[in-house]
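User: Can you help me understand a structure? I only have the sequence.
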Amino acid sequence: MKIKQVNLTIDGNAVTVEEGATILQAARQVGIHIPTVCYMETLSPYGGCRICVVEIVNRKGQKPFLDTSCTHEVREGMAVDTQSPRVVRTRKMLAELLVASAPNVKIAQDIAARMDGRQGPRVFRKGHSSPSPDALPDPSGDLPPLPGVRFCLPGSHRSL
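Assistant: Let's start by predicting it. Here is the structure, written out as tokens:
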């Protein structure tokens, strides 16, 4: 029985892979790097870290969408962009969120540094280092209150 082949384009390069392969597997097959955190070849992919996000167009005229390359199977005629501005921006944000949720984990710091050259996040969790209280918005300004957002503690010890 002959295995069906699928033709697609990744970053402008024509690629032919076996049907059932994921975008990540196809990209690796031709030497295109897509960063990953949670992907392991020996386990079923689930896309939990989302770092391997790519931009996909299945048909001409279709609006491009983002999806994880480790879980999305290739389709005939599909076009994939692994470095579009939208993909790069999304990966930077995801790397920052990863560091914010695991600030002392070396792999999270390394990934964030590679994405943006930044060692620390712009987003902070309670109990972790954060910007000075003077850098926080002034609650006495003319801005309308936002639902679900309030300032805790008075004076210089306030936080969001």
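Now, to help you interpret it: The chain has two domains: 5-82, 84-124. Residues 85-101 form the longest helix (17 residues). Let me know which part you'd like to focus on.
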